[in-house]
TrEMBL record:
Binds 1 zinc or iron ion per subunit. It is found in: Cytoplasm. Its EC number is 3.5.2.7. Keywords: Cytoplasm, Histidine metabolism, Hydrolase, Iron, Metal-binding, Zinc. The gene is hutI. Catalyzes the hydrolytic cleavage of the carbon-nitrogen bond in imidazolone-5-propanoate to yield N-formimidoyl-L-glutamate. It is the third step in the universal histidine degradation pathway. Zn(2+) binds at residues 81, 83, 251, 325. PANTHER family: IMIDAZOLONEPROPIONASE (PTHR42752), IMIDAZOLONEPROPIONASE-RELATED (PTHR42752:SF1). GO terms for molecular function: imidazolonepropionase activity. InterPro entries: Amidohydro-rel (IPR006680), HutI (IPR005920), Metal-dep_hydrolase_composite (IPR011059), Metal_Hydrolase (IPR032466). It comes from Pedobacter gandavensis. This is Imidazolonepropionase. N-formimidoyl-L-glutamate binds at residues 153, 327, 329. The keyword RNA-binding does not apply.
Length: 414
């Protein structure tokens, strides 16, 4: 494998030590940098870096050189929450929303997750793979190089397994780490509207054993929300998943204070995600803990719902990550550059905090921070090279405009 030397890096960003696997509280604004730098990639990994006045004398033979021309070099985005496997977009609901209908009203009228589930029944694995691959390629070009993908539009044994097999194929076909979360508990299928325990039994007795036997999921997700899965039902599902070694990463407090945060913490969730409706008790539950608060500001932006209280979470010493939530209903975008901007503009995170939340803490929310998420020797050479911008703040400041010049994946120019 050829080696790559990147020279003339204006600023190398995110040089966290390898022991630093997650950031919280005041650590979140700490983003170590190196000016006027070079970085060497060997065997797909970051092998060394330093300042231009001290370029290494001995370099590998098969070396390719790339000048960053004064641009910034950052670790690639680590997007820990997405639903990119879906059968069709939902522009019809977008138009209903413009006309004044809320997300809950659209769902109650047969739209929402059930709309996507109906379309999922018909979709072939091939078509699902092809459309998800297009979305994933776009995301990679926008700087993402680690991704979590959820099932949850299947809502039946066959369709949930179909979605998870598509995710497995994406894992096998793309050069970035991908984690799969099992989200059959996303909504109750119409047939089980008045028989919640019937569907929960199907998840526990039929889906979990098969998924575990085929090794199709890394995590268990539940949409813990009024009108979806209650705290008791979430508790029951997370307890069952634990028997198969599936740790929770759950949807909590999106539309209302659901108690999802506390039940997630009780089950030692890797992350509790959304938190748009968070109260003091939820913040207290996350304070000084290891469960990551994953905030999804593009979802708030698109649905017009409140933005999560990132400042209170950082103040409470909770680890905060940012992710896209890319899905056809509440967030039809997987652009982490926009998430970064919203993190600063709407969540009032400092650029350094928001970058850490999109990189190291995002990696931690997928248990990947030993291998990616910072500029650290031995980690994956997954990098973003920017144009020669005036400062780091220019990145989130210039919202909606890409400052990315080159993407490096596993030490190779993409
Ligand atoms: O994270 N809220 C639950 N799940 C998705 C949206 C699902 C959909 O509308 O298709 C979310 O926002
Ligand atoms: Fe989601």
């Amino acid at each position: 494998m050829a080696s790559l030397l990147i020279t003339h890096i204006g600023t190398l960003v995110g040089l966290h030590p390898k022991e630093q696997l997650m950031l919280r509280g005041p650590e979140m604004s700490h983003l170590p940098t190196l000016e006027d730098a070079w970085l060497l990639c060997e065997n797909g990994l970051i092998s060394d870096f330093g300042t231009m006045d001290a370029l290494p004398g001995k370099l590998p033979n098969d070396l390719e050189t790339l000048s960053a021309e004064g641009g910034y070099v950052l670790p690639s985005w680590c997007d820990s929450h997405s639903h990119i496997v879906f059968a069709a977009p939902r522009e019809e609901e977008f138009v209903m929303k413009i006309a004044g209908k809320s997300y809950e009203e659209i769902a109650a009228a047969g739209g929402g997750i059930l709309n996507s589930a109906a379309k999922m029944q018909q979709a072939t694995e091939e078509a699902l793979f092809e459309t998800a691959a297009i979305r994933l390629n776009d995301m990679i070009q926008q700087g993402t190089a680690a991704l979590e993908i959820k099932s949850g539009y299947g809502l039946s044994v066959g369709s949930e397994l179909k979605m998870l097999r598509v995710i497995r194929r994406l894992k096998e076909s793309f050069p970035i780490p991908i984690k799969a979360s099992f989200l059959a508990a996303h909504a109750f299928p119409i047939a089980y509207k008045n028989n919640h325990q019937g569907y929960i039994s199907q998840i526990i007795d039929e889906m979990l054993p098969q998924i575990s036997a085929e090794g199709l999921a890394d995590y268990m997700d539940v949409f813990c929300e009024t009108g979806f899965f209650s705290v008791e039902e979430t508790d029951q599902l997370l307890t069952a998943a634990a028997k198969y070694g599936l740790k929770p990463k759950i949807h909590a407090n999106q539309l209302s204070v659901s108690g999802g945060v506390q039940i997630g913490v009780k089950h030692q969730a890797i992350s509790v995600d959304h938190l748009e409706a968070t109260d003091e008790a939820a913040i207290a539950a996350l304070s000084n803990g290891n469960t990551i608060a994953t905030l999804l500001p593009s979802c708030s932006f698109y649905l017009g719902i409140p933005f999560a209280n990132a400042r209170a979470l950082i103040q409470a010493n909770a680890p905060v990550a940012l992710a896209s939530d890319y899905n056809p209903g509440s967030t039809p975008s997987g652009n982490m550059n926009f998430v970064l901007s919203l993190g600063c503009i709407k969540l009032k995170m400092l650029p350094e905090e928001a970058i850490n939340a999109c990189t190291l803490n995002g990696a931690a929310a997928m248990e990947l921070s030993r291998e990616t998420g910072s500029i650290t020797k031995g980690k994956k050479a997954n990098l973003i090279i920017t144009r020669p911008i005036s400062s780091l703040a220019f990145l989130p400041y210039s919202f909606g405009q890409s400052q990315i010049k080159t993407i490096i994946i596993n030490g190779k120019i993409r």
